[in-house]
TrEMBL record:
It comes from the Bacteria. The keyword Transferase does not apply. The keyword Transcription does not apply. PANTHER family: INTEGRAL MEMBRANE PROTEIN-RELATED (PTHR41386), MEMBRANE PROTEIN (PTHR41386:SF1). Keywords: Membrane, Transmembrane, Transmembrane helix. InterPro entries: DUF1003. This is DUF1003 domain-containing protein. It holds the Pfam family DUF1003. The chain crosses the membrane at residues 44-67, 73-93. The lineage of its organism: Bacteria, Bacillati, Actinomycetota, Actinomycetes, Pseudonocardiales.
């Protein structure tokens, strides 16, 4: 069997020789959320409107600065590029928010289930205490029983008991 001249073994995977760009998805997501949040502000709309007005005025009035004549094709291209990037960024931000909402909903559901289980446990404990207290003699019950026993004892005639003192023999 011929030997490989490159020194590479066929029974082991190749190392990564290509350039790989490592992007932290969470950092990228936070960055895109900040951009999407900014795109929805009045500040962004103000600055974009101002840039468009300046662009159109300079291209209509300043004869020497006309880089984008009347149909404003370059401006339309800029808007198209902006829309091509803004839409996915906004969708990414919405997906991340949906994921956070889903986690929060799961936590709320688990908390509600735990609260329900705790409440049911406490209700069972309270019911068992009520049953146990129903079987316990209370102070009033004992007082009543003792009063009745005393009345019974007072009502019975007492027999004279013989005196058991030793007689002088």
């Amino acid at each position: 069997m011929p030997e490989l001249t490159s020194g590479r073994r066929l029974d082991q995977p190749r190392g990564q020789s290509r350039f790989r760009l490592n992007i932290d998805p969470d950092s990228f997501g936070r960055f895109t959320e900040r951009i999407a949040r900014f795109l929805g502000t009045g500040k962004y709309l103000f600055w974009q409107t101002l840039i468009v007005i300046v662009w159109i005025v300079l291209n209509l009035v300043a004869v020497s600065l006309r880089w984008d004549p009347y149909p404003f094709i370059l401006l339309n291209l800029a808007f198209s590029t902006q829309a091509a990037y803004a839409a996915p960024l906004i969708l990414l931000a919405q997906n991340r928010q949906d994921d956070r909402d889903r986690v929060s909903l799961d936590e709320d559901r688990n908390r509600a289930a735990q609260t329900k289980a705790d409440t049911e446990y406490l209700a069972r404990e309270l019911a068992s205490l009520r049953i146990a207290l129903g079987e316990v003699a209370t102070r009033d019950f004992l007082r009543g029983e003792l009063d009745r026993l005393r009345e019974d004892l007072d009502a019975k005639p007492r027999k004279a008991k013989p005196d058991r003192t030793p007689t002088g023999t």
